[in-house]
Amino acid sequence: MRAVPLPSPPPPAGSRGQRAAAPPAAPAASLDVVVQLSVKDRSAAERELSTLLARVGATQVRRQRDFTFVAIVPQSRYGEFTRGMAQIGSWQMETDRSTVPDPVHIAVRLVSPGSRRSGS
To answer: What are phi and psi of 32, to 5 degrees?
Structure first.
């Protein structure tokens, strides 16, 4: 399984000139699937999603403050993963993908009814 490097944090203030600037990272471009998972209780859903990721043999790359999980799921377990998400809440694919690679780089954003925003 190939590891995906995480973007480097921004340099601390006042540390200008250490190295040449690298091109900006595009984390969304490395994702194969982006899912919005609507749940009643985000804290409970976080625990359930963590358990599901472990059960399907996924590697959790990172967890963000906005209730987004980024993980790598083996393609052979992707169907089980999507069925497991349906047990946690209703989910909607934000990316259009008819086929997925192996492994699948996926981001799951947990939203609750009070947290939805209209538009992009």
So the answer is: -90, -35
Say how many residues make up the chain. 120
Report CA 25 to chain centroid distance, whole Å.
16
Structure tokens at 35: 């899912």
Q: What is the DSSP string of 29-68?
A: GG-SEEEEEE-S-HHHHHHHHHHHHHHTT-EEEEEETTTE
Q: Cα–Cα distance between 78 and 99 in angstroms, integer? A: 11
The answer to whether 76 touches 68, Cβ cutoff 8 Å, is no
Yes or no: say if 6 and 77 are a contact pair by the CB < 8 Å rule.
Answer: no
Distance of alpha carbon 120 from alpha carbon 46, whole angstroms: 24
Q: Does pTM top 0.70 for this prediction?
A: no
Distance CA 50, CA 44 (A): 10
User: Smallest Cα–Cα separation from 76: which of 96, 56, 61?
Assistant: 56
Which tokens sit at 22? 């690298």
Q: Which of helix, strand or coil describes residue 120?
A: coil
Rounded to whole angstroms, the Cα distance separating 23 from 114 reads: 36
pLDDT digits (tens, 9 = 90+) for 4-24: 444 444 444 544 444 444 333
